[in-house]
Amino acid sequence: MDIQTVVTQPFEGQKPGTSGLRKKVDVFQQPHYVANFVQAIVDALPADQRRRLVVGGDGRYFNAEAIQTILKLLVGNGVAEVLVGAGGILSTPAVSNLIRQSKADGGIVLSASHNPGGPGKDFGIKFNNASGSPAPESVTQAIYDNTKSINEYRLANLPELELTAGKEYSFNNTTIRVVDSVDDYAQLMQTLFDFDQISAAIKSGSLSLCFDGMHAVTGPYARKIFGDLLGVQKDLLWNCEALTDFGGGHPDPNRVYAKSLYDFMMGSEATDLGAASDGDGDRNMIMGRGAFVSPSDSLALIAQHHQSIPQFKSGLVGVARSMPTSTALDRVAQHLNISCYETPTGWKFFGNLLDEGLVRLCGEESFGTSGDHVREKDGVWTVLCWLSILADKKVSARELLAQHWTSFGRSYYCRHDYDGLEADKAQTIMDQLAGSEGKLVGRRIGPMSVAEVNVFRYEDPVDGSVAENQGVRVIFDDQSRVVFRLSGTGTDSATLRVYLEQIERDAKNQGADAIEYNEALGKFANEIAQIQSITGLTEPTVKT
Length: 544
Ligand code: G16
Known about the structure:
Largest sheet: 7 strands, mixed
Bound molecules: 1,6-di-O-phosphono-alpha-D-glucopyranose
Number of strands: 27
CATH class of the largest domain: Alpha Beta
Radius of gyration: 23 Å
Number of domains: 3
Helix content: 25-40%
Shape: globular
CATH topology of the largest domain: Alpha-D-Glucose-1,6-Bisphosphate, Chain A, domain 3
CATH architecture of the largest domain: 3-Layer(aba) Sandwich
């Protein structure tokens, strides 16, 4: 097999963001673009850590072409073994699992997650390390540095490979094995949950689930796990045919983009549990009959009821949340007398805590939750956690929420996103907020007054690495908060995220809608961040 050394030049801006390199698909379609970036990944790996790699993506438009290029490149670089998902498809948590199970040196994940797919839409590539975790910043920086100086890459002259499960190819020193996209992951789930208990509840009619796959990667996983193994009827597994453009939708499971599921769960036909997952299967939305469960509450309730989940029967040890995620988890952790870590946004920051066994459950406001079984957030797993809790407690999700709020107080939580901002204006907002403590301390809104304003800085307790400038926190005297940060996953203009959290401890005031409850705080946030005067925007683009 011929190996060609291809002369190339660096591309501007191949800098990984919150979760890998995400750009418009036509940027990735430029000649050399994918090969440059993947060669930069390979070059960032020490020679003895290129033995076995996993490759898979969420199946979005351009996945199939990019996979073929990556296989040529990995053969060209002499990687001994490559495991690739059938059709080039693996959900993000399934990649993480396969890396861990096969003791691979890492994996290459093709996804732009919840961003839309199709011509003119988004694409992405990221690298996960040997523990299955998105690469830490030291590695993404090394990859970025390589992209700036790259002048050649090595490509094997392979034919187009048919990626059917079970196929195996040998070229020079490389073996490529095509694995079923779902099987290993489904087996893992069966070791973590009591499938007999859940399926008995489903089959007896005492527990029902409606799942929306949003025409994204989890469709086949949902059909196998919820349908074949747990007995959920086909007509309750919506949009489970994976499509390269996600059916033209926005595969982001929240109240706005999973609106049909939201409306169904608020209606008279609702099931006990409603759930949706995103483009690459790591995000989730959870609803009970007539109740939206915010991701922060979902995380806190999973922690509270961890004894209903076989994986966590031996105890949680510790838990972690990203900084903007609500403090509901902290209160449960305090009650359980376990540690609660606060990390910057980005799943990669949980990796060390999980690897060290300091935490077993993590989550983020951005519709992500997972445990120590993989090193990615995991949508299907979260649904199984909720099915386990409901099957065990035999109480509705709505009732569980109400009980939780009565015991721990309710963090009324929502997020206002201001999309389409010019990057320099977005930065001006952040800069002026960072220096605003003197001006803001003592400002009142209703009964609350600003107690502290700070810029979040994280020092990793395991390796001492430091992440600066991870968002501005405005903290009130009753622990309510407004957090500001810039999104790191967009592909064109900047997005300012404003996270609103008000803690209501009085049970009789805990039944309101979170978006409405936080309206005044959202206006206050717009004013103190001077969003209107700097950008002209009086209202956020999206409220979730
Ligand atoms: C990615 C990361 C998440 C993070 C989210 C935040 O999610 O994996 O850990 O919370 O980005 O996005 P942003 O920077 O836009 O606020 P995903 O699902 O896009 O991979």
